[in-house]
Design brief:
- With 415 residues, the chain is mostly beta strands.
- The chain is 2% helix and 47% strand.
- It contains one helix and 44 strands.
- A hairpin with a 2-residue loop joins strand 1 and strand 2.
- The longest helix is centred in the first third of the chain and has 7 residues.
Length: 415
């Protein structure tokens, strides 16, 4: 802040990850700030055991592996108490991360702790093609804003097992697959975020979690953007304050527009506020099999246009949910720019209303002969594929289902 001519002037650097996509962000071709570390390992094989590697200097990592390095840390403490002066370099290149793995390099972390306290300070960051970080039994925690727990960008890769990953700062996802994709694969362990606009997991690339407990206190639990994908197997996911999962395409440029995908096998979804699935400005496919739903909100799907993202009037959603051996509860909503399809197969059940406010551009329900729709409110659908000629697998509970006669000639105009 400076004072001039009786006025106060302030330069404010807005957090470029705020709300994930309100702003178009063009990354620099290379870091604008030199990326340095207390320990920089280049083209060597090294092993560190029970060491403390700590940095306090601005824009300085504790460790950088680069140029073909292969580094192993056993029961080490890797910590950063420093601040980043460039949120863009932090977001795209891993500036100021405690442990930074650069292209064509490999790091292994066995046990120990990795932590940061400053703004823009990720725990573990894999940047660039050939960057690989293997994590086993590590505890990773960050406290500042814009500080990811683990992150990959530009085709970086992170693989982890039995790790505990926590973030508390605003705009600080615990697990982040960012610009130009990458891969993060975690088995077991726990992932938790508590800051505002800080999903527990965020994917603009490829994300896979198995047997992991995932929770968020100040944001959606999972956010999937553009052509990003997430596969959750045997995971328990929950969000306290808003929708549990968001699938969308933004203006940020982190991921191109295309098919946004979520696959869940087993585990559970807990929704206290909002919808289990919120979809905006994208075409999305959601596949669910044997997932337990716990919801006090009564909302299963909310498919909408959101003017933060996309071109006004053309930014609706098209979401197809396939349920296999799956029990679903809650209402299905879409606005006038959005289409929703619910497909029930293999002994699946939906207990809820579909398009009860008659707002959707289109709404479709498909059932096989083994599945049921238990209707909980008057519903307006474009097409019905009932699976049973006598409709015995649709339990109306006294409610009326309205449909498009021209697109449902097989219904013979029945009420």
């Amino acid at each position: 802040v400076r004072f001039e001519g009786g006025k106060a002037w302030a330069r404010v650097e807005h957090p470029t990850d705020a709300n994930y996509g309100e702003y178009k962000v063009t990354p620099p071709e290379k870091p604008t700030v030199p990326i340095t570390a207390v320990k920089t390992i280049s083209a060597d094989t090294e092993v560190f055991s029970s060491e403390n590697i700590i940095t306090k200097d601005e824009n300085t990592s504790a460790v950088i592996a680069r140029e073909g390095a292969d580094v192993t840390f056993k029961e080490c403490t890797i910590a950063s108490n420093s601040l980043s002066s460039s949120s863009l370099d932090t977001r795209f290149f891993g500036l100021n991360s405690a442990l930074l793995c650069q292209p064509r390099s490999h790091v292994s972390v066995n046990g120990g702790e990795i932590g940061t306290t400053g703004k823009g300070a990720a725990g573990v960051f894999a940047y660039g093609s050939g960057a690989v970080a293997d994590l086993s039994g590590a505890k990773i925690s960050t406290y500042g804003a814009l500080s990811y727990g683990i992150a990959s960008t530009y085709k970086g890769n992170i693989f982890g097992s039995n790790c505990i990953i926590e973030t508390t700062g605003n705009y600080s996802p615990a697990v982040y697959v960012g610009r130009n994709g990458g891969t993060i694969n975690l088995v077991a362990g726990e992932v938790k975020s508590s800051g505002g606009n800080a999903p527990a997991v965020y994917s603009a690339g490829t994300l896979a979690l198995t047997g992991t407990k995932v929770s968020a206190e100040g944001s959606e639990c999972a956010v999937i953007e553009g052509t990003g994908s997430a596969m959750l197997t045997g995971c328990d996911i929950s969000s306290d304050t808003t929708n549990t999962v968001r699938l969308f395409c933004s203006n940020s440029g982190d991921a191109p527009a295309g098919l946004t995908k979520l696959d869940m096998f087993g585990g559970s979804i807990s929704t206290n506020t909002g919808a289990a699935f919120y979809v905006a400005n994208t075409k999305a496919e959601i596949y669910l099999q044997r997932v337990d739903f716990e919801s006090s909100s009564g909302s299963l799907v909310n498919a909408v246009a959101n003017d933060k993202w996309g071109e006004h009037g053309e930014n609706g959603s098209d979401v197809h949910i396939t349920a296999n051996y799956q029990q679903l509860e809650g209402d299905v909503y879409a606005d006038n720019l959005s289409t929703v399809t619910i497909e029930l197969t293999a002994l699946s059940t939906l207990e809820g209303g579909i398009n009860t406010m008659n707002t959707a551009k289109e709404a479709h329900i498909i059932l096989d002969a083994s599945s049921k729709w238990i209707v909980t409110g008057n519903s307006f659908v474009t097409t019905i594929t009932p699976g049973m000629a006598d409709f015995s697998n649709i339990i109306d509970n006294g409610y009326t289902i309205y449909y498009d006669k021209e697109k449902n000639s097989h219904l013979n105009g029945e009420t």
